[in-house]
Design brief:
Layout lengths: L2 H21 L6 E4 L26 H14 L3 E3 L12 H10 L4 E6 L6 H9 L4 E5 L5 H7 L5 H17 L5 E6 L5 H6 L7 E4 L21 H4 E4 L4 E3 L10 E4 L6 H5 L2 H11 L18
Parallel strand pairs: 1-2, 1-7, 2-3, 3-4, 4-5, 5-6
Antiparallel strand pairs: 7-8, 8-9
């Protein structure tokens, strides 16, 4: 980066990071629990196939500890997904039911839609799931199946259609959204589902915390550090949901350590400080992450 960009980056990070400090809550606004990191897809836009972490499912004791702490702290938003397909977790419905019983206001999953068959969809609705977002890439059947093998376009579309029908029959408040980050034609991507789902979200491809080269632009502090908290299946706390291999850990939640201990712990505080000072280059995960630049 040239000297002017360095100065501007420092100013941006100081101002925005300072604002994040002012609004930071004592407990994360969004807690993401990776109940499993297994996946049944091999999407070409996702590095899951490169993940070296063991495939694991979160233990029920740890899960309940995390939900109990979220409930006691008044956390309103819990996501039961991270780097895997949540519907591969056979306990998912029981986990959702427990979170709702403990008073979590919004429980969300982000899935690929392939396993949302009607019987599973009914159970998810009946236990009180509030929000489901389905990843859906590609403008045509051929493009979808090239990007998201071995998933089948027709199966995913039909599962979403049936989910919404069932939601309406059961008069559930479940919200159903579709997310897309790779397509050659946005309008074509929306065509099969735009009159079905509650909304579409089109994002940009990112480089998963620094994979590959990135054009050097102005630095910015990442809002995730002040807002979200990601617990991996084994209880380790990842700095970011983009850290698919758990390389940048900021703590662990277990019988002796709570979410709040890690959230206000020295490792998290140090990373936030470096972001405020535009020194992301000192953090391996953030150094070349596209999310760390304007």
């Amino acid at each position: 980066m040239n000297p002017l960009s360095v100065l501007l980056s420092k100013a941006v990070c100081q101002i925005v990071g300072g604002a994040f400090d002012m609004v930071k809550c004592r407990f994360p606004a969004v807690v993401r629990l990776e109940t499993t990191n297994a996946c049944n897809a091999r999407c070409i836009i996702c590095p899951h196939r490169e993940m070296r972490r063991p495939i694991a499912t979160m233990g029920d004791g740890l899960y309940r500890q995390l939900i109990d702490e979220c409930a006691a702290a008044g956390c309103r938003d819990v996501h039961l997904h991270n780097f895997g397909e949540p519907l591969l977790d056979k306990q998912l419905e029981d986990r959702i039911a427990y979170a709702k019983q403990r008073g979590i206001r919004r429980v969300r999953i982000f899935c690929n839609g392939s396993l949302l068959a009607p019987d599973r969809a009914r159970r998810l609705i009946e236990v009180g799931l509030d929000d489901v977002k389905v990843s859906f890439d590609g403008a045509t059947r051929e493009e979808f199946e090239r990007i998201r093998p071995p998933l089948k376009f027709d199966t995913v579309v039909q599962n979403i259609v049936e989910l919404v029908k069932l939601r309406d029959v059961l008069r559930s408040k479940l919200r159903v959204h579709v997310a897309c980050c790779s397509t050659t034609d946005k309008e074509a991507t929306m065509r099969s589902l735009e009159k079905v789902v509650d909304g579409f979200a089109f994002g940009k491809l990112h480089n998963w915390g620094g994979q590959g080269a990135v054009r050097k632009r102005l630095r910015k502090p990442c809002s995730r550090l002040w807002r979200t908290f990601t617990v991996l299946a084994d209880g380790a706390v990842a700095l970011c949901c983009l850290d698919y291999d758990g390389q940048q850990l900021v703590g662990r939640v277990d019988a002796r350590h709570s979410i709040r201990d890690v959230w206000d712990g020295p490792l998290y505080r140090e990373v936030r400080r470096l972001h405020r000072q535009a020194r992301q280059s000192q953090i391996p995960l953030c150094a070349n992450c596209t999310k760390a630049f304007l």
